[in-house]
Specification:
Elements (H helix, E strand, L loop, with lengths): L19 E3 L13 H6 L2 H15 L15 E4 L2 E5 H10 L5 H9 L16 H16 L4 H16 L9 H43 L5 H4 L11 H14 L2 H8 L5 H7 L3 H17 L19 H10 L8 H22 L4 H48 L14 H9 L5 H15 L6 E3 L24 E3 L1 E4 L2 E8 L14 E4 L15 E4 L7 H9 L3 E3 L4 H4 L5 E5 L4 E4 L1
Helix pairs in contact: 2-7, 3-4, 5-7, 6-15, 7-15, 9-12, 9-13
Length: 579
């Protein structure tokens, strides 16, 4: 029996300088326990170092304010990732127009946190001046070629240069994965993290403009229909693949037989329509195969490594009529947005200063909504080139009987994996122990806030208790309106896109997280409701491109809304009404 009261293998001690941590905003990155491979390959100090450099470039901190080679911005306690709220509070103190309290509200909502205790060097005028310079730069920028072209092309070149992994030796596979992380991943991740802060300036300016114009819904309505959103692009390609099925009776018959074994059946067929489908599908996997529902993990179910996931999505899309074509939806939203902008320009034509402000905010919004999504796509695509060698290595180990299953590789640190190459079979018992350890920790609900001292894990409640009260007819659940519009339908609670075949046309998707790996199945739904997220969540941005009424941040939605419940989703006002 594993003693889970001991620190997990990747745990660290809380910071004394920045003692308050929270689980807020970590659900999209890691809802459960972090594996040793993830934290030691592409997490931990890799992320910490990139984050520190991003904060320094933005102007909010100097890297010397953090301890060398020790985590400060993040924390891992009994395997769960935390974000350092104290660091974010200091950021708020130094950010013009913000405060520690504002950061609490941003990250925690209505959850109460320990009172902010100011430190002598929290308020640093030189940092405030640097942040102001960043604000001025962001609001004046009209192009980000470093992200939209340079990094994008570099990620594409890295994919094109992928070696024949089957021809590499075991150690060469691991070394290739490590080299991608060390030489490529850190730099694009740093840029993406900085982009998160930069894009928050833009959304803040848009919210402020909408408030001044007396219509808070403008912020959401003006961020839809932008076009050229990187994380929305797969949805259109998947739709086009679904139309091949609709046009082919043999393809339709194969999909009717079910997704299990479908990939093998299609590849074994000599039918021209099936061969064409496989050719298109392989091009799709080449271009978008890095996507998954756990995009920061080293061995998730990516679309390239687990074909059943995108095939399941296509299976749902083939049942939709042409009115659900993402291209049509995007065109309609683009026309709505252009009409709204035209109205604003006409209404305020006599106020030159206000009109100039409107034009500036719109231009910056156009740029940064696209650039932020492209930045995430670039980063994930680079990381994927470190994943694929690991999949090949795991396949070999399973084939040789050294691992019981491919994802056993996740149970080892990079150092242990290096040792495993030299001493096969040595870690069999340790892998089993770690898996049991993770499974037991995954049953527990980590404290939402930690203030300097980690409560004993033996006192953490189980995730299944206490029971969450189900929403009753007439209840109105509140969240964040991410895409305007209203839709009524039957709720379908789905925890993994693998279960996409359960989603029927016209149903409302209720999901736990917002991640690009989910967004293609949005097209199969009438609307989307998500437990967590913000207006800058990737699914929020994509839903606005697809015209899907979407409400994010509905706490415990997947527990409170039962399958089969009829609900109305109001994406403009951010509410979900139970019927």
């Amino acid at each position: 029996m594993v003693d889970i009261s001991q620190p997990f293998v990747i745990d660290n001690a809380p910071s004394e300088r920045f003692p308050v941590y929270t689980r807020a905003n970590t659900g999209e990155v890691a809802g459960g326990v972090i594996t040793p491979l993830r934290w030691t390959l592409n997490g931990g100090m890799v992320v910490e170092s990139a984050w520190r450099r991003a904060l320094e470039e933005f102007g909010a901190f100097d890297e010397t304010e953090f301890r060398p080679d020790v985590l400060d911005i993040q924390g891992v306690f009994h395997g769960y990732i935390y974000i350092n709220l104290s660091v974010q509070r200091v950021f708020g103190v130094r950010m013009p127009g913000a405060s520690a309290d504002l950061m609490d509200r941003t990250y925690l909502g209505d959850v109460t946190a320990p009172a902010y205790a100011a430190q002598p060097d929290d308020d640093r005028p030189e940092c405030t001046d640097r942040i102001l310079a960043s604000v001025g730069r962001v609001m004046s920028e009209r192009d980000r070629p470093d992200i939209t072209s340079e990094d994008r092309e570099e990620a594409a070149r890295l994919r094109a240069a992928r070696p024949d992994l089957t021809a590499l030796g075991d150690r060469e596979l691991l070394e290739h994965a490590q080299a991608v992380v060390k030489e490529r991943y850190g730099s694009v991740l740093q840029k993406h993290l900085r982009m998160v802060y930069e894009s928050s300036i833009v959304t803040g300016a848009l919210d402020e403009l909408a408030a001044d114009l007396g219509d808070p819904t403008l912020a959401v309505r003006l961020t839809g229909g932008l076009g050229d959103i990187a994380s929305a692009a797969p949805s259109q390609v998947l739709w086009d693949l679904s139309r091949l099925i609709v046009q082919s009776p043999p393809l339709t018959a194969e999909f009717e037989r079910g997704v299990d074994g479908l990939d093998d059946r299609l590849r074994a067929s000599t039918d021209s329509a099936m061969r064409r489908f496989v050719e298109w599908f392989d091009r799709f996997c080449y271009e978008f195969g890095s996507r998954s529902t756990d995009e920061w993990a080293p061995m998730p179910k990516t679309w390239e490594s687990h074909h059943g996931v995108p095939l399941g999505m296509i299976d749902r899309l083939r049942l939709q009529d042409e009115s659900k074509n993402p291209q049509l939806q995007s065109r309609r939203l683009r026309q709505d947005r252009e009409a709204l902008i035209g109205t604003l320009r006409t209404r305020h034509a006599d106020d030159a200063a206000l009109l100039a402000r409107i034009e500036s905010v719109l231009a910056t919004t156009d740029l940064y909504m696209r650039a932020r999504e492209q930045s995430k796509t670039n980063t994930v695509r680079v990381l994927h080139e470190a994943r694929m060698p690991l999949f090949e290595l795991a396949r070999r180990f399973v084939e040789r009987g050294l691992l019981a299953r491919a994802d056993d590789l996740n149970m080892l640190t990079v150092t242990e994996l290096e040792d495993l190459l030299a001493t096969p079979g040595r870690y069999t018992d340790r892998i089993a122990e770690r898996r049991e350890w993770i499974d037991r920790l995954d049953e527990l609900e980590p404290p939402f806030i930690i203030d300097g001292e980690i409560p004993p894990v033996t006192e953490w409640p189980e995730k299944k208790a206490p029971a969450i009260s189900m929403a009753a007819p007439g209840d109105v659940l509140e969240g964040i309106g991410a895409c305007p519009g209203v839709a009524e339908g039957i709720a379908r609670v789905i925890f993994d896109p693998v279960d996409a075949p359960d989603l029927e046309p016209g149903e409302i998707l209720v999901a736990p997280v917002t991640d690009p790996g989910w967004t293609p199945i949005f097209t199969s739904a009438a609307a989307v409701v998500v437990n967590v997220g913000s207006p800058l969540s990737h699914a929020a941005i994509v839903s606005r491109e697809l015209g899907m009424p979407c409400v994010l941040g509905v706490r415990e939605a997947t527990k409170r809304i039962a399958n089969g419940t009829r609900i109305t989703v109001d994406g403009t006002n951010g509410t979900v009404t139970v019927h």
